[in-house]
Amino acid sequence: GSHPCDVRSAHPLCEEGCGQPTSEIHHRVPLSQGGTHAWSNLVALCASCHDRAHAATRWGSSVFSGAHAQ
How many Å apart are CA 23 and CA 58, to the nearest integer? Predict the structure, then answer.
């Protein structure tokens, strides 16, 4: 499977399109819920967008938007 460092190298800027450098890797399906380190399950994000991704998950949205909301 993919390693999070590979994703970070491939996507030096946040995949949400905010223009910030990638600082964290988000798992679309958390490891605790059976997710893996497969490339398709990983998203390179800045810290702010990563926080938003987890907030969306907490509020019932399991699909990562892929669109940055400012």
Answer: 21
